[in-house]
């Protein structure tokens, strides 16, 4: 099993095209053709995690946060980032990050948080637009099923909890091959009229190339008439944050204590409660203050996230209660989830959840 196969799998569960423009997910250090001897999974990539990988004979460290984030102009060991990268290179440890792309997919970081809270009817808090395309292809009726099936296998036709979605309409196709053509149907110089179908499918941005290739391989025509149209529709399954409901209302302080216990918080910073009982909960793993207006608009009772600045707490304006549980605390279960996904998929190498507490913050 090569490193690139692991990266490909990660791209399936959280396509790297969904990472934010400022992010740096993917294979950051290493050799994509290297054989995997073991994987250590952690939230953060620091020196002690590299040491752990070396100790257990693992040559891959998979983390949520990328160790190389703002770019490096030199690697001299002057700080923890440079020392970590140097140690990884010296010991042939491959470093992979799966960051905001995992934040932005439906079953990613925020779904993990929602599951821990027992939320139901969850949905993306701030869905993204323009992440889908529509592919329309014209083909003879005889090959319609084959083309539909091949495109579906390549990733076309996913709409929420449904797959293999498509729409087919019938009509006539007209064409005249010239003397250099090698037509599947018809003769050079003669106008041909053929019963054809138009197959339309939704294709996510990351799957466009694979779907196009699958369509072309199975299509019988020498020249294939097709359209790829960018959609501005909002994609309800891709985006930031998540919102859902508790099964039953909880008294606000009882809920905060439940959150503190569930996420092992050293403390929770929170604004004045606006309700005595809470039910609708918005969440965002990591630093989520940018979603406060979305949480208010969605009429959340509580917004759980991390890294709120002092003045940002005022922005709640008594519309909801902000509960800052900490960056590490909100995302800590991401590593367990990744371990579970890798263990389900791969059996040729060991996957180990780090024993290192990478949280740089202590509480008194």
List keywords for this structure.
364 residues, alpha/beta, Udp-n-acetylmuramoylalanyl-d-glutamate--2,6- Diaminopimelate Ligase, Chain: A, domain 1, Alpha-Beta Plaits, five-stranded mixed beta sheet
Give average pLDDT, whole number.
Answer: 97
* CATH fold name of the largest domain: Udp-n-acetylmuramoylalanyl-d-glutamate--2,6- Diaminopimelate Ligase, Chain: A, domain 1
Q: Can you tell me the overall shape? A: globular
| CATH architectural arrangement of the largest domain | 3-Layer(aba) Sandwich
Any low-confidence stretches, pLDDT <50, length ≥5?
A: none
Q: Which homologous superfamily in CATH is the superfamily of the largest domain?
A: NIF3 (NGG1p interacting factor 3)-like
Give the strand order, joined by hyphens, for the main sheet.
5-10-12-13-14-11
Secondary-structure element order, N to C: HEEHEHEHHEEHEEHEEHEEHEEHHE
| C-alpha end-to-end distance | 45 Å
How many domains is the backbone divided into? 3
The SS-based structural class is: alpha/beta
Largest sheet: 6 strands, mixed
Beta-strand portion reads 25-35%
CATH class of the largest domain: Alpha Beta
Rg, rounded, reads: 25 Å
Find the count of extended strands (DSSP E, 2+ residues). 15
What is the overall number of helices? 11
**Percentage of helical residues?**
25-40%
């Amino acid at each position: 099993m090569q490193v690139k196969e692991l990266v490909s799998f990660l791209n399936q569960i959280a396509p790297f095209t969904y990472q934010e423009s400022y992010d740096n997910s993917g294979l950051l250090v290493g050799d994509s053709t290297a054989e995997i001897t073991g994987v250590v999974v952690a939230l953060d990539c620091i020196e002690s995690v590299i040491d752990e990988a070396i100790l257990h004979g693992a040559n891959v460290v998979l983390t949520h946060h990328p160790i190389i984030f703002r770019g490096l102009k030199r690697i001299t060991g002057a700080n923890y980032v440079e020392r970590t990268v140097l140690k990884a290179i010296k010991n042939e440890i491959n470093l992979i990050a799966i960051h905001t792309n995992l934040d932005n997919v439906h079953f990613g970081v925020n779904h993990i948080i929602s599951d821990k809270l027992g939320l139901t009817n969850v949905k993306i808090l701030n869905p993204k637009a323009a992440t889908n395309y529509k592919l329309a292809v014209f083909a003879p009726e005889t090959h319609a099923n084959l083309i539909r099936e091949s495109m579906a296998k390549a990733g076309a036709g996913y709409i929420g909890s449904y797959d293999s979605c498509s729409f087919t309409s019938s009509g006539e196709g007209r064409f005249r091959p010239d003397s250099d053509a090698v037509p599947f149907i018809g003769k050079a110089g003669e106008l041909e009229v053929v019963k054809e179908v138009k197959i339309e499918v939704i294709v996510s941005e990351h799957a466009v190339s694979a779907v196009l290739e699958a369509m072309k391989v199975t299509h019988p025509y020498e020249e294939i008439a097709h359209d790829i149209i960018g959609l501005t529709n909002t994609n309800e399954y891709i985006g930031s944050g998540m919102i859902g409901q508790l099964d039953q209302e909880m008294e606000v302080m009882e809920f905060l204590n439940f959150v503190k216990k569930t996420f092992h918080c050293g403390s929770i910073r929170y604004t004045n409660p606006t309700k005595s009982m809470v039910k609708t909960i918005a969440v965002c793993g990591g630093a989520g203050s940018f979603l406060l207006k979305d949480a208010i608009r969605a009429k959340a009772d509580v917004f759980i996230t991390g890294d709120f600045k002092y003045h940002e707490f005022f922005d709640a304006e008594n519309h909801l209660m902000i509960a800052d549980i900490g960056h590490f605390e909100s995302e800590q279960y991401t590593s367990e989830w990744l371990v579970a996904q890798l263990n389900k998929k791969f059996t040729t190498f060991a996957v180990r959840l780090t024993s290192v507490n990478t949280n740089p913050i202590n509480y008194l």
